[in-house]
Amino acid sequence: MAIREQLIEYRDGDAVLEGFFCHDDSRPGPQPAVLIQHAWGGRDEFVERKARRLAWHGYAAFAADVYGKGRRGSTNEQCSALMTPFMQDRALLARRVTAGLEALRALPQVDAKRVAAMGFCFGGLCALDLARSGADVRGVVSFHGLLKPNGLPARKVRAKVLMMHGYDDPMAPPEDVLAIAKEFTAAGADWQLHAYGNTQHAFTNPQAHDQALGLVYNEAAERRSWHSLMQFLDEVLR
To answer: Measuring CA to CA, which residue among 76, 48, 62, 67 is closest to residue 208?
Structure first.
């Protein structure tokens, strides 16, 4: 096994973006690939660790960049300021996510026909919006993602969809869960949702300890959701 890592610049119009690519260079031929979308703070070590972990499982992994090269937040206020323009313009967000998908597919180590996407928190919404766009990907996975609809014209969802959700997530209350279930059913999607009881937002992040905002790590939910991810990727990409 020879895990290789590199930073890759790509563009969305005038915006310069920088993704983190990781793959096992000892495996022959193009590999099935996973596009990873970051949380509200920007592309960071958290998603890079996920990319490395996926590479060990034989996937080419690309932690994409929505905000722009070097743009990251370190406080709640900074993170909110980075995320808000994309929440207010979901067409821009869809285009930015698609740019990451195209950058991944263009890599010679990647099997462009076997690609899935996943994301955490804001990144979970990014992955769901990729599915909503009708993108030709095998599957999308949302970890404690925001579930709000994008308000854009409905398209047939071609990707299989897996959502991992904390039932006590204050940022995605039960009414949002019911709404997205109806939305993806109407879109003809093959979808599933795993809800974890007594679990709040950001449950996969060991650094999440903010009870006031409902950002709380949950080891059991993290472990179970990763196991579900591995089963899902094996189904859609192998």
So the answer is: 76
Domain count, the chain: 1
DSSP 34: E
CA-to-CA distance for 110 and 103, rounded, in angstroms? 10
The answer to whether residues 132 and 155 touch, using CB atoms and an 8 Å cutoff, is: yes
Pairing of strands 215-216, 209-210: antiparallel
**CA distance to 16, 84, 101, 184, per residue, from 88 (Å):** 21, 6, 21, 22
Of the candidates 3, 36, 6, which has an alpha carbon nearest to the alpha carbon of residue 20?
Answer: 6
Task: Look up the domain containing 184 and give its range.
Answer: 3-237
pLDDT per residue, tens digit, the chain (238 aa), is: 899 999 999 999 999 999 999 999 999 889 999 999 999 999 999 999 999 999 999 999 999 999 999 999 999 999 999 999 999 999 999 999 999 999 999 999 999 999 999 999 999 999 999 999 999 999 999 999 999 999 999 899 999 999 999 999 999 999 999 999 999 999 999 999 999 999 999 999 999 999 999 999 999 999 999 999 999 999 999 8
Q: What are phi and psi of 85, to 5 degrees?
A: -60, -30
Provide CB contacts within 8 A for 145, sequence distance 6+. 119, 120, 121, 122, 123, 124, 125, 127, 128, 163, 165, 172
Strands (E), 15-55: 15-24, 31-37
The CATH number of residue 89's host domain is: 3.40.50.1820
- Tell me if the pTM is above 0.85: yes
